[in-house]
Write a structure and sequence with these properties.
The complex is a heterodimer of chains A (about 280) and B (about 575). Chain A is an alpha+beta fold and about 280 residues long. In chain A, about 30% of the residues lie in helices and about 10% in strands. Chain A has 9 helices and 5 strands; from the N terminus they run αααααββααββαβα. The longest helix of chain A has 16 residues. In chain B, helix 4 runs parallel beside helix 5 and helix 5 packs parallel to helix 6. Helices cover about 30% and strands about 20% of the residues of chain B. Chain B has a 21-stranded mixed β-sheet. The longest helix of chain B is centred in the middle third of the chain and has 12 residues. Chain B is built from 21 helices and 23 strands. Classes of the chains: A alpha+beta (about 280), B alpha/beta (about 575). At the A-B interface, helix 2, helix 5 and helix 6 of A face helix 5, helix 6, strand 5, helix 15 and helix 16 of B.
Chain lengths: ~280, ~575
């Protein structure tokens, strides 16, 4: 057991007397106690799971879970090179996943300056509202000294509204590289939240929520439109992706029936063929 | 105690327990807190009757702890209600969308049972335009609407409030997500409407008709708080201030423009006229050249919120050093240790300090030094929120010694598991010193490298602690056990990414009923334990959240299945019926 040495004031706290046998997790020395506890409880020691040297990779669209309880203990060298993949398991069981939803990639050295890294979800605990405001500020304004403004991330957050949905979402266009990626993300964000059976039970004011959801579930089609810098509503997909990201101010998923009025002849073609 | 009727002799006063309700109601009006009133109500049935019928302000800290109907029936005379919805960690994106927290049932019930309602406040709830329309239509005496961190509504809902609430005094919108329907809602305040005291639309994204705003501000002579959004340019700010020199609280919205001496002069004159200004905030991407325009108000300021201000360096310091009467300061870490040293020497009345991170990836020069300086020199400092990159046990011990009067101490070291950067030890000793020294501590957030030992200290010493936030800390079940078996006053516990498992949860099940709520995510919990907990404690609602992409029915899963997110809260309302598919109540 590594005793805590230090200045007089720390020794006074009497940690040497404690009956807990603790090593410093993840640190240079002995992990025996922690690992022992982990083995005896049959669960993966937590120090190992989010050991800062471990690299976990998440693939957004499809993820495959591996049952590798044994591999991650102690062998930090192998763990460092073995990317974990995550997915819903075929038999419907939920596998033990080392906080896959929390840690995307972790960095090893807290002292060194880092390149922008993928973050742990919800960490540091800064309100999403604040993050959005600072990202927008960075986009619009310049730093006082003309250098990179603080709070900058290259985010291009735009609101997404969907006809019939009770509230909006936000997407960061800078995270995607093509219309297809955006389309997948939108599909996941907008439709996974709403196409759920229990939502209809939400105590809406007078059942309007339920009827709206009914429409959604009917499979009526949506057309993606966006408002550009000039304030015009355009059909998504006509201009090159980069140009779209540049000029898009907000997105709206319009009901197929309403989109008939849009100028692009393609849209009219589409909606005609639907009915 | 028997009724005193037979003992009455002539002109003797009625015995105290036979006093009419009105007397008790009047007596209870002197009780300072809801907790005191609740305690009084528990004494006997006549006190219960008197107290509940005269309760005018009701705070529902968890909207699912009771059904709206329960609240209406128990407290029929409520005039001001405050309801909170989603768990605190929803602020950081840990709660997926559509979780719940709809305001609609509360508004519907209130419309029915509290027609004289004057004030409504919602925090972290879903408020729709229909909700706002219902408020405008149902309460003829409605005066105060406060929405904090809510979403689900648009400017159309605001229009309904503006048009319908003839007695409105306060419209306070804090950090909400509001859809901009391009409806000029401000224009819907009638020309005859003059009662506004507070108008805060700082979180609104989108244009506002400046002329309409000016007219509104001009005719509302009682306006004390005005918080603008970033669509209001600087020159318009100057003219607004000239129309409302009586303002006590101002949010400038976006404060940036190229420097023009005319505009500077105009602003200086405008601020010079605001003799009552005490609180200042705004999103200042500011050209520092304009800061001196504020100098005349600095001396009177008690509250300064620069947490969205990207101003840095000497200009910022010059500004803050003039604010000698500051009680509350919110800044970004751009202030650096140097700036905090100035705060320490200039702001002797400081009570609350919050330092926010400006950039997750950059390195500033804000260290433990800044906090040590402020805690050493500001004797009234009692509330701290501090984001930094490094800390030492020695610094924390010094801070604890200097400031035993902390009531709220939240330290967030940005990188999880960061040890004392000098000794490389865990920060157990430092945080232990804090809880041992600060006997009145009510709220604590810990971070950095921490072992189970810190929890032993917290459990043993933090008697008044009501809210505890833990992340990436501890080694074993012992840690959680220390907390749940100690911390006498604990109400809210939120934990993420800690190696805490089933045993301490089950061993301390009864404790959970004395608390408002428990959140545990990315820990080592299994479904079996949650099932057991739910069976054992019928007055707890045990909610399990898993990845929204998954929706396997809970019943088919074995006990060993891991639980990613757990939210447990006490309730008299039974399981709620509005859960999305990814939330299952065990």
């Amino acid at each position: 057991m590594e005793k805590i040495k230090g200045g007089g004031s720390m020794a006074d706290l009497g940690f040497e007397e404690t009956e807990l046998r603790l090593g410093l997790p993840g640190g240079g020395g002995c992990n025996d106690a922690a690992a022992e506890a982990a083995r005896s409880s049959g669960k993966r020691g937590f120090a190992e799971t989010i050991d800062l040297k471990l690299k976990l990779q998440v693939q957004p669209a499809s993820a495959a879970a591996e049952e590798d309880e044994g591999d991650l203990e102690e062998e930090e060298a192998t763990a460092a090179t073995e990317p974990l993949q995550l997915s819903p398991a075929a038999d419907g069981k939920m596998k033990r996943l080392p906080s896959q939803s929390s840690v995307v990639i972790a960095q090893s050295d807290p002292e060194k300056p880092r390149a922008p890294k993928a973050q742990v979800v919800g960490w540091p605990p800064v309100r999403s509202f604040r993050k959005n405001v600072l990202a927008v500020q960075a986009e619009k304004g310049k730093g006082v000294d003309g250098d990179k403004p603080p709070g900058a991330s290259a985010a291009k957050l735009v609101k997404v509204s969907m006809d019939g949905a009770p509230y909006l979402r936000k997407v960061d266009l800078a995270m995607y590289e093509s219309y297809q990626q955006l389309s997948m993300a939108l599909h996941q964000k907008l439709f996974s939240s709403f196409t759920i059976g229990k939502c209809g039970a939400q105590q809406g004011m007078n059942g309007t929520n339920e009827s709206k959801l009914g429409d959604l579930l009917d499979g009526s089609e949506y057309v993606a439109t966006y408002e550009d810098k000039d304030g015009d509503w355009m059909l998504v997909g006509d201009v090159p992706w980069e140009m779209f990201v540049e000029s898009c101010k907000r997105l709206r998923m319009m009901r197929g029936s309403e989109a008939i009025g849009l100028a692009a002849p393609r849209a009219m073609e589409k909606s005609k063929s639907r009915s | 105690m028997g009724r005193g009727g037979s003992r009455a002799t002539g002109a003797a006063a009625p015995p105290w327990h036979a006093l009419p309700d009105e007397v008790w109601e009047h007596a209870f009006s002197f009780l300072p807190t809801a907790a005191d009133r609740g305690a009084a109500a528990g004494a006997c049935s006549s006190w219960l009757r008197a107290e509940r019928r005269s309760r005018h302000h009701l705070a529902v800290a968890n909207c699912y702890a009771a059904a709206p109907r329960d609240a209406i029936e128990r407290f029929p005379a409520v005039r001001a209600a405050e309801v909170k919805g989603k768990p605190h960690f929803a602020d950081f994106g840990l709660v997926p969308p559509a979780w719940g927290g709809a305001a609609a049932p509360w508004i519907a019930a209130a419309a029915d049972g509290w027609p004289l309602l004057e004030e409504l406040s919602f925090k972290r709830m879903v408020v729709t335009d229909e909700c706002l329309e219902m408020i405008a239509a149902s309460f003829r005496n409605f005066q105060v609407l406060r929405l904090v961190s809510c979403d689900g509504f648009s400017t159309a809902g605001l229009a309904a409030i503006a048009a319908g609430c003839r007695q409105l005094r306060e419209l306070d919108l804090q950090e909400n997500e509001i859809e901009d329907c391009s409806i000029h809602w401000l224009s819907l305040f009638p020309e005859s409407f003059t009662s506004l005291v507070t108008l805060n639309f700082s979180c609104l994204d989108g244009e506002v008709n400046i002329t309409v705003l000016e007219r509104l501000v001009t005719r509302c002579r009682n306006l004390k708080t005005l918080k603008l959004n970033n669509a209001i340019p600087l020159d318009k700010l100057a003219s607004l201030l000239q129309k409302a020199p009586q303002l006590v609280e101002l949010g400038t919205g976006k404060f940036s423009a190229d420097y023009h001496p005319d505009l500077f002069a105009k602003l200086e004159v405008a601020f010079g006229g605001c003799k009552s200004l005490r609180k200042l905030s705004g999103a200042w991407d500011a050209v520092p050249d304009y800061l001196p325009a504020f100098y005349c108000v600095c001396d009177g300021l008690t509250s300064l919120n620069l947490s969205y201000a990207t101003v840095r360096g000497p200009e910022l310091i010059k500004f803050i050093s003039r604010c000698k009467n500051l009680q509350q300061l919110w800044v970004m870490d751009l202030i650096e240790d140097l700036g905090l040293a100035v705060v320490a020497s200039s702001c002797s009345k400081l009570q609350e300090l919050r330092v926010f991170p400006s950039d997750h990836f950059g390195l500033g020069v804000l260290t433990e030094r800044g906090l040590v300086d402020v805690s050493a020199s500001c004797p009234m400092l009692e509330s701290v929120l501090y984001f930094c990159r490094r800390m030492t046990n020695e610094a924390l011990i010094t801070i604890a010694k200097n400031r035993p009067n902390f009531t709220c101490f939240r330290l967030c070291i940005l990188e999880p598991h960061t040890p004392d950067y000098i000794t490389q030890h865990p920060l157990d000793a430092g945080f232990s010193a804090i809880v041992e020294s600060c006997k009145g501590l009510r709220r604590l957030s810990i971070s950095g490298l921490l072992t189970d030992l810190v929890f032993r200290s917290i459990g043993a010493h933090a008697d008044r602690l009501e809210m505890l936030s833990i992340a990436f800390a501890g080694n074993s079940d012992l840690g959680l056990n220390y907390i749940l078996s100690g911390c006498k006053s604990l109400k809210k516990l939120e934990i993420r990414d800690c190696p805490f498992g089933d045993k301490p949860l089950l061993a301390n099940a009864a404790k959970l009923e004395t608390m408002r709520s428990l959140w545990m995510s990315s820990c080592l919990l299994t479904l079996g334990a949650c099932r057991q907990l739910a069976r054992k404690m019928p007055h707890l609602s045990v909610e399990i959240m898993n990845d929204p992409g998954w929706s396997c029915p809970l019943d088919s899963l074995p006990d060993e299945s891991p639980v990613e997110k757990l939210y447990v809260y006490r309730t008299i309302a039974g399981p709620r019926s509005d859960t999305p598919s990814y939330v299952q109540i065990v």
